Amino acid sequence: MSMHEPARQMNLSHSRESADTPRLPSLLPIRANGVVLEIDGNRLVDAIDLELSADKLTVLMGPNGAGKSLLLRLMHGLVAPSAGKITFDGLAMSDEVRRRQAMVFQRPVLLRRSVAANVDFALKIRRHASPAERDKLLDLVGLLDRAKQPARALSGGEQQRLALARALATEPDVLFLDEPTASLDPHSIELIEQIVLLAHRQGTKVIFVTHDVGQGRRLADEVVFLHLGRLVEQTPAKRFFSDPASREGKAYLEGKLVL
Amino acid sequence: MQDFAEPFRLALALVTAGDADLFEIIALSLRVSLLAMAIACVLGLPLGALLAVTRFPGRSVVLVLVNALMGLPPVVVGLIVYLYLSRSGPFGWLGLLYTPTAMIIAQVILITPIIAALSRQVLEDLHTEYAEQFRSLSVPRRTVISALVWDGRYSLLTVALAGFGRAVAEVGAVIIVGGNIDHLTRVMTTAIALETSKGDLALALALGFVLLVIALTVNGLVMALRLTAGRHVHA
Ligand SMILES: Nc1ncnc2c1ncn2[C@@H]1O[C@H](COP(=O)(O)OP(=O)(O)OP(=O)(O)O)[C@@H](O)[C@H]1O
Ligand SMILES: [Mg+2]
Prior knowledge:
Chain A is an alpha/beta fold. Chain A has a domain at 111-171. Chain A has helices at 68-75, 95-99, 115-126, 131-140, 156-169, 186-201, 213-219, 237-242, 247-253; strands at 30-39, 42-52, 58-61, 83-88, 91-92, 101-104, 174-178, 205-209, 222-227, 230-236. The model of chain A is unreliable at 1-8 and 15-19 (pLDDT under 50). By secondary structure, chain B is an all-alpha fold. In chain B, helix 2 (20-53) packs parallel to helix 5. The longest helix of chain B has 37 residues, at 100-136. The model of chain B has no long low-confidence stretch (mean pLDDT 89). In chain B, 78% of the residues lie in helices and 0% in strands. Chain B has a single domain (10-234), classed as MetI-like fold (Orthogonal Bundle). Classes of the chains: A alpha/beta (259), B mainly alpha (235). The A-B interface holds A 76-78, 95, 98-99, 102-103, 105, 108-109, 111-114, 121-122, 125, 150-153, 170 and B 129-130, 132-133, 135-140, 143, 147, 150-151, 232-235. The complex binds adenosine-5'-triphosphate and magnesium ion. Residues 68-69, 106, 178 of chain A line the site of magnesium ion (MG).
């Protein structure tokens, strides 16, 4: 499959559904209860209550500095909340839980190695890496012909695509994507959205941060809207984009909300 | 003041004539310093890596200590090793004093802190950059360290070179524990010191130039390696 023939029929998981592996507890719903994050006395995330269910693709929106990236970090266990708690199907965050999540960071950090080696690294951490699997992932994000190049020499958009391939290599049950298409061209955006929708259809819980309203419309089943570290609304996508419940959501969609 | 071109001519004459004594001295210098560097890397690199990725009480004290040890005065190290290895010292029975082994021991003590402290810095900087991504991927500790060492390999090569440079140019420690014995423990720096004290400035300068050329060659090789390899993987 090439970049020009989108990922519609591709199977993203490789080993998950083998019959003899015992069913792991689902990590869903993800529940946040009164989650607060304070750094140096600043309340950056303020008393967030939230429930994210398995079946919906969640899009996280809000102006710059609203706390979207921090909320992802909290849910991915990279920072611990100052108060409150986050559970995954009742389980507290642990290495075990985090291992079944993956994240594409707003600014991806790639290893100082080849494109292929970056994917191999993630594959090897989970299980045996095979070149075929790696090539499949690189093909998926349209980077197969760049496999031998140094990852750090890729363009910004290519780096984001590689970061997505690396995240998918871990076959996550929960996938956090922090503005993964922020510096992509329209064709690559289309490609990434296809991959994300495919992952969603195959049962991966996707939490997607974007500023792009059109993208939100295309992807979201529900929108979680943040402002000033607070959860302002959590609304089904159809409703959010036509008639948001909050004043802030309305102002944001009209391009009038700033932090 | 002698003719300044004279040492050049003499050095060239010694080298082109394939002077056996000269090459013996050069070979011993390289052997001692390269071995010392290799051993110091085996000891210092894991220590640096461990200090880079672990947090424990008293870590900052260890860091200060290792950094301070970078500046160990060679003569003091020479003196201490001498006391341990001399016939009345605790390790006198090994009979190592005035052997190349004694010189290697002294140089290992001198440059291990350099390797440890500099590699700690290199690996910690890299770790700061990678830490969150590694946590996200739940990379096991051992893989973290090997990945840092691999991705930092070019910088670490420079660190090893800094150690080699210090070892090969050092005179204070090796002259005390080696004794500058002809055909046995005479290396370039001790030979230079001897020739200078004998007033044979021309030969001393000639050896000095050879030492410089060796240092430049080794560094040039590493630079070339870094450039070619770096173009492919580093970026
Ligand atoms: N480590 C930190 N220390 C101090 N303040 C921080 C830290 N990380 C984030 N912040 C602050 O917290 C606020 C929320 O940051 P966050 O990165 O979550 O915003 P965001 O919603 O992702 O914004 P953007 O759309 O620009 O990516 C910002 O004001 C930021 O300056
Ligand atoms: Mg952000």
